[in-house]
């Protein structure tokens, strides 16, 4: 091993004598306090039209939580009483992942994925409800699917409207984040829809997934989870963001590096007991944006729990959490 020079050694000693505030380390806010049923994974949250909140997540038959105040959460069972039969084409247990809830045209829309670990034999489905509450959903089948011959993975859906059109971003590993246009009447992929490529990274296994796109000002902001989830305190999930003036990209970070070339500004990563922050979504509440995500609690056996933080926008347009 190469030994440091005397000058380097002296510099290190002098730095050690400086106040710790001189280190200027990046710090991240803790999630805002929540109570009740906090266990959750890949949360999607919405404020319901009559008031109150519902969150859906990976686990169960799309696990549900409800809240009156966004602070105290109650277990509300599952979105469905039983898995629709077509789910079993994609895994033996009828296990759905990573839902996304939205409201349009007088109905709530719930998108979700069915797949198996390490496979891109996957599909995204959709259901609708008049209230958005568990037990009221009607499933409408497949929206979009991928096969082992495809270079993308049809999981982790998220909806966004842009210029009067409806789009769905999705993707996990393989070639990263993709997007297709949807038919707004059916909520399914438009016939002959182009599969746009939004983000990836140069290093296999291309560990970027869980996209979510938000319009702010003249830009569309793409949030995604990078690195590894689902390993408790060994998870390395973190949330990055890029932006574009067009919904289909190209998305770049604040330095101008394209997300298709591994770019992305780090928005939130694990710190202290809050390990592996990711599986994010964004929801609007009383004119303010909120970031919902899960973290693995290092002080509670790595159990995944709900994280909520205000999403604020700086003068240069880039988001920050608080």
Morphology: globular
Are there runs of 5+ residues with pLDDT below 50, and where? 1-25
Classify the fold: give the CATH topology: Tachylectin-2, Chain A
Shape-level CATH architecture: 5 Propeller
Number of domains: 1
| Helix-strand topology string | HEEEEEEEEEEEEEEEEEEEEE
- Kindly state the number of beta strands: 21
Q: Which class do the helix and strand fractions yield?
A: mainly beta
Q: What's the rounded overall pLDDT mean?
A: 92
For this structure, the quaternary state is single chain
CA-to-CA gap between the ends? 43 Å
What does this structure look like?
With 322 residues, the chain is mostly beta strands. It has a single domain (39-321), classed as Tachylectin-2, Chain A (5 Propeller), CATH 2.115.10.20. It has one helix at residues 6-17; strands at residues 35-36, 44-47, 53-57, 63-67, 72-78, 96-104, 107-114, 122-129, 138-146, 158-162, 165-170, 177-182, 196-199, 208-216, 219-226, 238-244, 265-269, 274-285, 288-297, 303-313, 319-321. The longest helix has 12 residues, at 6-17. 43% of the residues are buried. Mean pLDDT is 92; it is low at 1-25.
């Amino acid at each position: 091993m190469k030994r440091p020079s005397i000058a380097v050694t002296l510099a290190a000693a002098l730095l050690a004598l400086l106040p710790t505030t001189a280190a200027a380390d990046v710090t991240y806010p803790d999630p805002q306090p929540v109570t009740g049923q906090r266990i959750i994974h890949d949360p999607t949250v919405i404020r319901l039209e009559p008031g109150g909140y519902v969150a859906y997540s990976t686990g169960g038959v799309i696990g549900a939580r409800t809240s009156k105040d966004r602070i105290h959460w109650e277990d509300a069972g599952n979105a469905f009483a039983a898995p629709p039969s077509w789910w079993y084409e994609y895994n033996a247990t009828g296990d759905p992942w990573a839902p996304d809830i939205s409201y349009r045209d007088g109905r709530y829309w719930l998108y979700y994925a069915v797949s198996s670990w390490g496979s891109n034999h996957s599909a995204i489905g959709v259901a609708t409800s008049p209230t958005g509450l568990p037990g009221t959903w009607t499933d409408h089948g497949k929206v979009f699917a991928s096969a082992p011959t495809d270079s993308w993975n049809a999981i982790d859906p998220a909806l966004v409207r842009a210029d009067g059109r409806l789009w769905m971003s999705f993707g996990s590993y393989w070639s990263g984040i993709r997007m297709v246009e949807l038919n707004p009447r059916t909520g399914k992929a438009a016939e002959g829809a182009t599969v746009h490529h939004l983000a990836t990274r140069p290093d296999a296994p291309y560990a970027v997934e869980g996209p979510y796109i938000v319009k702010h000002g003249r830009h569309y902001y793409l949030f995604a989870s990078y690195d590894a989830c689902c390993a408790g305190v060994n998870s390395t999930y973190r949330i990055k963001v890029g932006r574009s003036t067009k919904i289909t990209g190209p998305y770049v970070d604040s330095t101008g590096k394209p997300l298709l070339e591994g770019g992305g500004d780090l928005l939130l990563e694990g710190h202290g007991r809050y390990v592996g922050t990711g599986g994010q979504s964004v929801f609007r509440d009383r004119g303010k944006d909120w970031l919902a995500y899960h973290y693995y609690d290092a002080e509670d056996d790595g159990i995944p729990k709900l994280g909520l933080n205000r999403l604020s926008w700086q003068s240069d347009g880039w988001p920050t959490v608080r």
